UniProtKB/TrEMBL annotation:
Protein name (Swiss-Prot/TrEMBL): DNA-binding protein MutS2
Binding, ATP: 483-490
Entry superkingdom: Archaea
Taxonomic source organism: Halococcoides cellulosivorans
Primary gene name: mutS2
Residue ranges occupied by any DNA mismatch repair proteins mutS family domain in the UniProt entry: 476-666
């Protein structure tokens, strides 16, 4: 799909979209999160682009939502759905649901919705869902302790391009390679020519390294999984708990993820931790061991009476021997025992059994007091421990990276499927909370056949779903809807618009039953506040002229108290004229009006008047039957009150007033 073929996508947006991973797929699947990853495209705009792309795919042009009030109702429906999702991505995806005129689109959403409603969602799924997000790109890693080395210019260029995370060095010969090995923990030589050289340090000759990025920069894979670790774990939980078909072995991925932190660093493992402890505790352990050995020796000396016979002393003196010789001769055993105690202290404390011979080499041969171990041997041992730790770390990093690498392809499907559960669950929750059913949508050619609502509960009323009275209403052709004040006329228009929009979005409706054709446009005009000035009045008339000219066959027209735009006499004539024009075009239209009688008198054709009636007064409050009664002009609130007073008293005044009402209604 060429992005510029999508309405609303110009060259600038198309260029921005080219920046994302697989823009074709993102547009085809309406993947808002992926589209929003393009530079300077906000999630709201991404949702609009995704929606336009879907519309283009279904060959739809134009918007079913033909007026501001229709758009507002759609937005309110989206709010109801979005408030039941827990992820941003889920909420954004819900915004791509729009009322469509394409059967293919409506059916594909319905299929998904039916599956979503049938599924069971564990009660406490929100916390798992909330931790899922679309694949996050990891920050570029920079690896400083490793480098690549080559003497070949082409290989150098290829390596720099493939591995921006790591330094690539040029080396002419073994000596330069050896120099590098001093500065880096690990050097990976790319040229076969360096094979077989004996160079100190961790130098590996890997002519195939360019094709093995996991070996060269395992940190790259790890950073990706680190950035998505918590989301993936949550997605795994969602898959398990909802019973989704997983795109990979979830246990294996879970176990591999357990080995990394969120920054992509690998958890060390027992061997590295042991080396780490040995390096950190090295100086202290050596000091303590020397002290132990010295204390041992001191105790041995203090406990001893050294007896030297006079002849011996003379012979020693003749040979020029010092006290140390005496010490060695007399206390050799005690010294050996003391040194051995020191050795054990180091080996045990640092857990260095495998390197015990190295510790042995640091022990003094000659008796000294206090006892000191050989510093240079210890320095070598410390360096060796560090090198061993670094080597082991790299091995482990590679091991874990190799374990995770095969799951790279599963990241998007796993996260996307879990996010889809958020969308599905939001729809299912809406359906359950409003006790929805799937509407019956009539096939092509049924435009103008009217809309049938049984037990419809307007979800936009502020009342809790249980507090909304169900409404039955079947509308076909042009109707005038009369009714008592606050009887629910506006709410009935909202209900008609809501179920029509929901049905064409492919969603379930809050009603026991709804039958509707696919309407080409929903033209809902909300109530005007107060009389319009001449200019505004003129533009409203023009709007209706356009509506009458452009509204396709079978459009839905809902108008709330148009009479308030001008004085009653004139507005009754205007509404009558509009109704006549609409009746010619097979529209389904409902005009809410307090002037139904006057309008009917002005029309040259028969227009049905329906009424929302009050069935009585309860403690001064009207008791209303919310379902419009077909073909009945509802009595007004003042009429009801006059009737009540006439019933309750025997004053002629109220009878006179009542007589006026009855005369006007022709009864
Ligand atoms: N089906 C219903 N179930 C419960 N309450 C309703 C229902 N319909 C309307 N109401 C209540 O009545 C109030 C008034 O409804 P609405 O504005 O639709 O009446 P109206 O007939 O258009 O009023 P007006 O005469 O002022 O134009 C609503 O805010 C709501 O509280």
């Amino acid at each position: 799909m060429d992005p510029e073929s999508i309405p609303g996508v110009g060259p600038k947006t198309a260029a921005a979209l080219a920046d994302i991973d697989d823009p074709e797929r993102a547009l085809r699947e309406g993947d808002v999160a992926a589209i929003a990853a393009a530079p300077e495209i906000t999630p709201a705009r991404a949702a609009r682009i995704a929606r336009s792309a879907i519309q283009a795919r279904h060959d739809e042009s134009g918007d079913v939502l033909a007026t501001d009030r229709a758009t507002e109702i759609h937005r309110s429906i989206l709010d109801l759905l979005q408030s039941r999702a827990v992820t941003d991505a889920g909420r954004q995806h819900l915004r791509t649901l729009y009322p469509s005129t394409a059967r293919s689109r409506i059916d594909s959403v319905r299929e998904r919705v039916e599956r979503a409603i049938d599924r069971e969602y564990p009660d406490d799924l929100s916390s798992d869902l909330a931790a899922v997000h679309p694949r996050a790109e990891a920050a570029t890693v920079r690896v400083r302790e490793r480098c690549l080395a080559t003497g070949d210019a082409e290989r150098y260029a290829a390596a720099t391009e493939r591995f921006p995370e790591i330094s690539v060095e040029t080396v002419a010969d073994a000596r330069e390679l050896a120099d590098l090995a001093e500065g880096y923990a690990t050097v990976i030589a790319l040229d076969r020519a360096f094979g077989g050289l004996d160079i100190e340090g961790d130098v590996r000759v890997r002519p195939d390294a360019l094709d093995d990025p996991v070996a060269v920069v395992p940190e790259r894979v790890l950073a990706t999984f680190g950035a998505n670790r918590d989301a993936l774990r949550a997605a795994i939980a969602v898959h398990r708990r909802v019973g989704l078909d997983p795109p990979c072995d979830l246990d294996a991925l879970d176990a591999a993820l357990d080995q990394i932190d969120a920054d992509g660093s690998v958890r060390p493992g027992a061997e590295i931790e042991r080396l780490e402890r040995a390096i950190e505790g090295f100086d202290d352990a050596v000091g303590a061991a020397e002290q132990t050995a010295t204390d041992h020796l001191r105790a041995a000396i203090e406990d001893r009476d050294v007896t030297i016979e006079g002849a011996d002393l003379l012979s020693l003196a003749e040979r020029g021997a010092g006290v140390d010789t005496v010490l060695e001769r007399e206390l050799g055993d005690a010294f050996d025992a003391a040194v051995s105690a020191g050795r054990s202290a180091i080996v045990d404390r640092l857990d260095l059994e495998s390197r015990a011979d190295r510790v042995d080499r640091a022990l003094p041969d000659e008796p000294t007091y206090p006892i000191a171990f050989e510093e240079s041997v210890l320095a070598d041992l410390r360096a060796e421990l560090r090198a061993a730790r670094d080597r082991r770390r790299l091995e482990r990093t590679r091991e874990v990276a190799r374990e995770l690498a095969p799951f790279r392809e599963a990241i998007d499907p796993l996260l996307d499927a879990a996010l889809a559960v958020d969308v599905d669950r939001a729809i299912a929750r809406f359906a359950a909370e409003y006790d929805c059913t799937m509407p019956e949508i009539e096939g092509a050619g049924t435009e103008g056949s009217g809309i049938d609502i049984v037990g419809g509960r307007n979800p936009l009323l502020p009342e809790a779903p249980g507090g909304v009275d169900p409404v039955d209403y079947t509308v076909a052709g042009v109707r005038l809807l009369s009714g008592v004040n606050s009887g629910g006329k506006t709410s009935t228009l909202d209900l008609i618009a809501t179920v029509t929009i929901l049905a064409q979005m492919g969603l379930p409706v809050p009603a026991d039953r709804v039958r509707t054709p696919i309407v080409p446009s929903i033209n809902y005009y909300g109530k005007h506040r107060g009389t319009l000035d001449a200019g505004a009045f003129e533009s409203t008339l023009r709007e209706f002229e356009t509506l009458i000219d452009d509204a396709g066959q079978g459009a839905l027209v809902l108008v709330d108290e148009l009479e308030s735009i001008t004085e009653p006499g004139a507005s009754a004539r205007i509404v009558a004229g509009i109704c006549e024009a609409l009746a010619d075009r097979e529209t389904t239209a409902v005009f809410v009006s307090h002037l139904a009688r006057e309008i009917r008198e002005e029309t040259t054709i028969e227009i049905q008047v329906d009424g929302i009636q009050a069935v009585g007064l309860d403690d001064g409050d009207l008791v209303v039957e919310r379902s419009p009664v077909e073909g009945v002009l509802a009595r007004s609130t003042p009429e009801l009150i006059v009737e009540k007073l006439a019933d309750e008293t025997d004053r002629a005044f109220y009878d006179r007033l009542l007589g006026k009402f009855e005369a006007a209604s022709g009864d």
